[in-house]
Design goal:
about 450 residues; alpha+beta; 3 domains; binds zinc ion
Length: about 450
């Protein structure tokens, strides 16, 4: 399923506008062609009303009929609008959803959300589409998970705990495997794998329902608690205005607009203040530097974005040769340092196992689990499964019980889930301004959090 946001060029009623709209529709067409066979949802500001009689609207209708895409319409209501310019009293419906016919049903009527904390001159819109059963089993891939970040600071922790409790309670426990003392059954390994995946799914589902996500590097605007009050006032005034039938004049409308402008102004001022503060801090920071220190600090702050790709690398010139150099370098990184190292390690561990007498298998109780969980750090990079330390830290006591059962079964069977065998290797520049021409990098491997927690117990004994 492809979901795409559209922002049509602003309508300045010029001929160029029509050609810009045509170009944008060609982009949409290229998306439809590139993902042939997929389902599509397009949403956004189309700058025209569905019933308009003009060239742009005609082009959009043609695009829809050519690709058999449905234009989802609002319940007809004269007072309905998605764009409003309070200054010149201009109200219109310009924001729409388009979707593939398989997703469209009679109840797919979009809703306009006229929320008080929305500062845009466009209202938010929402729609429920039907997803055919065949699409529901496709889970996101690794790269998808890693383009967004869970915002645990804004999470509904109680909701997370409750949902996790419900998910974990519904797991069917592999009792025979969990109680097995001297194993002779290969199928128990599959049971451990399945049990581990059920716990993992519980953690993901509970987080998905209760933790907001943001694109990495997106969440950077400033905020302060005073704006929260102004925002709340604005929401309240909008609620009153909505209850009064969304009047375009009168005292209620005036109060609603006043609150909205105050909120807009407060955000603008806070942003300006933050930038001013940054300048002041920078000024005092730079004043304390000598000549060398000044330029060092200056480059650190401002020059990292100006780094240009090098034209020469290790004596090689030209893009093709440099690419080759990179390919060879990175290929070599994934080769073992010594070709037979694995065999050597196997021999060593075999010898170690033979020389050590096996004592009783330790038991991991929930108190030990809770101890290890309390040593986990916040805000660490999640492993390839998207599970972060916070998933475990905020888990309810019932999670500790399930982890205790899982880890004890793993110990007794000498078997760990497949996921523990994988890590993500991330290349990092030694410093932000490291010399790329010398391939000045180091590498870290991030393993999944549950495997790190398991290792934590192993090293305890
Ligand atoms: Zn067994």
């Amino acid at each position: 399923m492809v979901i795409s946001s559209v922002y049509m060029p602003w309508n300045d009623r010029s001929l160029k506008h029509v050609s810009d709209v045509e170009t944008t529709i060609r982009c949409l067409q290229s998306i439809v062609d590139r993902f042939a066979g997929c389902l599509f949802v397009f949403e956004g500001d189309f700058t025209v009303n569905e019933s308009s009689i003009n060239e742009c609207c005609k082009l959009l209708h043609e695009f829809c009929s050519l690709n058999k895409i449905c234009w989802l319409l609002y319940d007809s209501d004269d007072s309905c609008y998605t764009y409003h310019s309070d200054g010149n009293g201009h109200y219109n419906v310009l924001d729409y959803f388009f979707c593939s016919p398989q997703m469209s049903a009679d109840n797919n009527v979009p809703i306009i959300l006229n929320d008080g904390d929305n500062m845009s001159d466009h209202c938010a819109i929402s729609v429920t589409v039907s997803i055919p059963a065949a699409c529901k089993n496709n889970t996101g891939d690794f790269s998808q998970q890693h383009r967004s970040k869970l915002l645990w600071v804004k999470a509904n922790i109680d909701g997370y705990r409750t949902d996790l409790y419900n998910c974990l309670s519904s797991i069917e426990l592999p009792m025979e495997t969990l109680l097995c003392k001297e194993c002779c059954d290969e199928s128990h390994h599959a049971d451990i794998e399945k049990y581990y995946n059920s716990i993992l799914n519980g953690l993901k589902t509970a987080a998905c329902n209760n933790v907001l996500t943001s694109k990495i590097g997106f969440h950077k605007y400033c905020w302060n608690p005073e704006i929260d009050d102004i925002k709340q006032k604005c929401i309240d005034a909008t609620e009153i205005w909505k209850t009064a039938g969304k009047p375009h004049s009168g005292e209620i409308n005036a109060t609603h607009l006043r609150c909205k402008y105050q909120y807009k102004k407060a955000i603008k001022e806070t942003a300006e203040l933050a930038s001013l503060e940054l300048n002041d801090n920078m000024y005092s920071h730079l004043c304390n530097k000598d000549n060398v220190g000044f330029w060092k600090a200056w480059r650190k702050r401002f020059c990292s974005h100006n780094i240009k790709p090098t034209g020469q690398l290790n004596g090689q010139l030209g893009d093709a040769n440099i690419l080759q150099m990179f390919t060879e370098h990175f290929k070599s990184l994934y080769q073992p340092n010594t070709p037979n190292a694995d065999l050597e390690f196997a021999k060593k561990s075999e010898a170690l196992l033979n020389s050590t007498t096996v004592g009783p298998i330790p038991f991991i109780d929930t108190a030990t689990i809770n101890n290890c969980i309390s040593s986990l750090k916040y805000r660490k990079t999640p492993g390839h499964d998207g599970i972060s330390n916070e998933h475990i830290i905020y888990g309810s006591p019932v999670l500790a019980v399930h982890l205790s059962l899982l880890f004890n079964a793993s110990l007794r069977h000498g078997f760990v889930p497949n996921d523990y065998c994988f890590g993500v290797t991330l290349p990092l520049l030694k410093n932000k301004h490291g010399d790329a021409s010398k391939l000045d990098m180091y590498y870290i491997t991030v393993s999944c959090c549950l495997s790190k927690l398991f290792e934590c117990f192993i090293t305890c004994f």
